Amino acid sequence: MTSLSARWATDDERARWDELVTANPAGGDFLQSSTVAEAKVPHGMEPKHVVFERSGETVSAALFHERRIPGLGKLWLGNRAPGVQRVDELEDHLDALRLFLRRHGRGVFLVTFEPPVVSDDETEAALLASASLTAPDLHRREGIQGN
Known about the structure:
Layout: E1 5-8, H1 11-15, H2 17-22, H3 34-40, E2 46-54, E3 57-69, E4 73-78, H4 87-104, E5 108-113, H5 121-129
Parallel strand pairs: 4-5
Antiparallel strand pairs: 1-2, 2-3, 3-4
Protein name: Peptidoglycan bridge formation glycyltransferase FemA/FemB family protein
GO molecular function: aminoacyltransferase activity
Organism: Candidatus Agrococcus pullicola
């Protein structure tokens, strides 16, 4: 299988952002919508639209909110991103995002992400067995997300 890659969304993709988010493997989520992206701008958060693709085909779209933190750099918040449900999908997306940020994420010091992956014994075992998701640059925090 070809590896997943990440890139900035085009103008056309940003114009139809909600359509792309709805097509995510986990389905759409309001927190990934263009409405939420626009609503956070007055609060100092710049929307960053990232598209994940494999062999030229879009796999998913993720919205991150960038906030500048004086003295530290840029914080990216990915509420309900990436829009995947399985651990293998999360691994692929995280690996692609790491590579993308190494090239295009100058000044980004922290990225949070909250994928809609259901927590159960099988998922927990897969998370613990994942090299991508147990890497030294990743800190996992348990939590509850409510919409």
